[in-house]
Amino acid sequence: MKVLTAGDGFVTTKVLTEALSGADGLEGGAVEVSSIQSNWPNEPYSDFSGVREAFGDEDELIEALTGVDVAISHTYPFSERVIASSPDLKLITITRGGPVNVDIEAATRHGVVVSNAPGRNAVATAEHSIAMIMAAARQIAQRDAEVKAGDWRSDYYNYDQVGPEIAGSTVGLCGYGNVGGKVARALAAMGAHVIVFDPWVDPNALEPGMELAEDLDSLLERASILTLHQRLTKDTELMIGAEQIAKLPDQAIVVNCARGGLLDYDAVADGLDSGKLFAAAFDALPEEPLPEGHRLFSTPRVTMTPHLGGASKQAAELAGRIGAADIARFVRGERPEHLMNPEVYEAGNLRAK
Q1: Which of 73, 152, 203, 285 is deepest in the core (most CB within 10 A)?
Q2: Structural domains in the chain?
């Protein structure tokens, strides 16, 4: 069986090839592997041809897929055109939680199964979220920039200037999934009281001492630190706006390391400008990258990183291993674990082997 590793600068072809060679049943040349690699993330991805957050040339991908049964990739665009032009392709494995760079409807029509890699960057994103909470509370990035500029300000020791400790704070956490659960457990271990809002969570899944909020408002009224970990859906879009920020205690901190669409950033900026909020930290932004002159650049007490919460060596390697394990199952004639269109596999509608 022929497998194409379509890598990029994060989940590289080397990472993917090594993952395949270590998967149960794929050792010792059990599959024939070919490779291409794109220049992402040194060039930004985009939305095109019915797929999102993709990078790579469709023609290059179509040529590379000639005679290929299985493709494993992170960001290449598996559009309707690519899938229709690759008649031997039976399985597309995407090494990210949301395979938005695949036209799944087109894959389903053409009898191609699609798998993903849920949880591959959960640890990295959780660690980054905790770091951003602490950076916002202690204004680490701002003080670092001032000290390096020769500005040593001991007036930040004044009571009205200092931020809160995590221990003893009430943290409102929206979304108790792979990332949110890890953040909640870490903050609870640091001594925070964690309140969770997640309509889908099993209350028994919460750690002892955590509290499940009846609704979002009851969480907001008590959360001195608000951290977002929801998926972006039509129900969660702009779930935090001016009305919700007004319900937070004075001098609260708002952190978003999930998706930019969850939050009204102008409302947060208004809260910071007015003194309602103490600080904010974002790894997910309303536009990526932010355009020159955007309001957030001049809003006080904002810490930002360029949507790299999930970027760690371990995350890339785990993504490769999760994908390779599903490919190994497929090669052995077994059902891949992480299917996005299981009806294709279960109905036996795959392209002829």
Answers
A1: 73
A2: 2-120+312-346 (3.40.50.720), 122-304 (3.40.50.720)
Q: What amino acid positions are annotated as catalytic residues? A: 259, 288, 307
**Measured in Å, how far apart are the chain's first and last C-alpha atoms?**
10
Output the CA torsion 315→319→325→326 (10° steps): 150
Query: Nearest 5°: phi and psi at 12?
Result: -75, 165
pLDDT tens for each residue of the chain, 353 residues long = 999 999 999 999 999 999 999 999 887 778 999 999 999 999 989 998 899 999 999 999 999 999 999 999 999 999 999 999 999 999 999 999 989 999 999 999 999 999 999 999 999 999 999 999 999 999 999 999 999 999 999 999 999 999 999 999 999 999 999 999 999 999 999 999 999 999 999 999 899 889 999 999 999 999 999 999 999 999 999 999 999 999 999 999 999 999 999 999 999 999 999 999 999 999 999 999 999 999 999 999 999 999 999 999 999 999 999 999 999 999 999 999 999 999 999 988 676 54
Residue entry with tokens 């951290």: 227
d(CA 348, CA 342): 10
Q: Is residue 91 a contact partner of residue 78, using CB atoms and an 8 Å limit?
A: no
For the beta sheet containing 2-7, the strands, ordered from the edge strand earlier in sequence to the opposite edge, are 32-37, 2-7, 70-73, 91-94, 113-115
Nearest-angstrom CA–CA distance, 261 and 238: 6
Closest CA relative to residue 111, chosen from 136, 134, 92: 92
**Stated pTM of the model:** 0.91
Burial of 51 (0-12, 13-18, 19+ CB in 10 A): buried
At position 11, the amino acid (one-letter code) is: V
